[in-house]
Amino acid sequence: MAPGVELLYWDGCPSHPAALAELRAALAELGRRDVEVAATEITSQAQAARRAFVGSPTLRVGGVDPVPPPPGEPAGLTCRLYRLRDGRHSPTPDPADLRDALRRLLPPPTQES
Amino acid sequence: MSFAIGALAPNFTLPDTYGNATPLRDVDSPVTLVVFTCNHCPYALAWHDRLQAVARDYGPRGVRILQINSNDAERYPRDSAEAMSARVGAGEFASPYLHDATQEVAHAWGAAVTPDVYVLDAQGRLAYHGAPDSDHGDESLAAVWLRDALDAVLGGRPPDPAQTEPVGCSIKWRPY
After folding, report:
1. Which residues contact A79 (CB under 8 A, 6 or more apart)?
2. Does residue B25 belong to any structural domain of this protein?
3. How many residue contacts between A and B have a Cβ separation below 8 Å?
4. Cβ atoms of B39 and B170 closer than 8 Å
5. Helices (H) and strands (E) in chain B — how many of each?
6. How many Å from the N-terminal Cα to the C-terminal Cα in chain A?
7. Distance from CA of B70 to the nearest CA of A (A)
8. For residue B105, which of A16, A26, B100, B160 is within the disulfide window of CB 3.0 to 4.6 Å?
9. Is B5 inside a domain boundary?
């Protein structure tokens, strides 16, 4: 498995199953089924602050947020607000933004010998 | 847990963003629509325009429409009274936006998420509780569950369904 994508979520927000499905769809579309996906539940304000968790869901690729939040966004147990490319609000990232970011941030697939 | 379909809604009077005391009931309104919403939740914001369209369409038909923010503004400053006023000032609301600063109304109503939608009949009894429609991401649905419920009550019929599952961000309760 390639180094993975981490999905940070808070159970008080219902968006993480959709986020996980959209993440897996984006990886499949990029032909990156080799990428490991790990889900981590954030359960406290202290943990949210430690992980710079600005809302559920938050993704990390090699420690980098593929859809960075606005500067100064506070950490907290809340649903995260994303903007779709057409300007609408959404609880999950725009699939095209996610796909582009994954393409940029993921290391190339390793060749199996 | 919310009160039951057919039960009388708990009464309240809350301030709007101009400080006007606003009661739940208006004896001249055949139907009252109450929406628990807020400023920061992506689900509330995704459904917001659809809900304002409902307010613009049904207000002239005598429906009393009240939108309420009950979130803890200390931990979630985007839900402060100032932020509410700014949104109203920007023309984002088609009906009064009330502040439940003590959260007593949300507790009494059993509201759980934003948005959480309640339709009351002329007697103030709960006729519909749930979501505006089945998908926050599909604007073409146009809050059809809510519109159907309002049409039913205006027509003297019980809504079918009377209950759907509200979907959204949990109401941000104050720590006790």
Report:
1. A10, A12, A13, A15, A55, A56, A91, B41, B42, B43, B168, B169
2. yes
3. 38
4. no
5. 4, 9
6. 14
7. 15
8. B100
9. no
CATH class of segment(s) A2-105: alpha beta
Provide the domain count of chain B.
Answer: 1
Q: Is A87 helix (H, G, I), strand (E, B) or coil?
A: coil
- Condensed to tens digits (0 to 9), the pLDDT of residues B43-91 reads 999 999 999 999 999 999 999 999 999 999 998 899 999 999 999 999 9
- Tell me the CATH number at B98: 3.40.30.10
Q: Are strands B63-69 and B31-37 parallel, antiparallel or unpaired?
A: parallel
**pLDDT for the residue A3:** 59
Q: Provide the residue count of chain A.
A: 113
Q: What is the DSSP string of A18-59?
A: HHHHHHHHHHHHTT-TTEEEEEEE--SHHHHHHTT--SBSEE
Where are the extended beta strands (E) located within chain B? 13-15, 21-23, 31-37, 63-69, 97-99, 113-114, 116-120, 126-130, 169-170
| Chain B environment of A91 (Cβ under 8 Å) | 42-43, 46, 136
* Residue range(s) defining the domain that contains residue B28: 13-170
Does B59 map to a domain?
yes
Using CB atoms, pick whichever of A13, A88, A90 lies closest to residue B169. Answer: A13
- The structural domains of chain A, with segments of one domain joined by +, span 2-105
Cis check: omega of the bond before B30, within 30 degrees of 0: no
> Is B42 in contact with A80 (Cβ distance < 8 A)?
yes
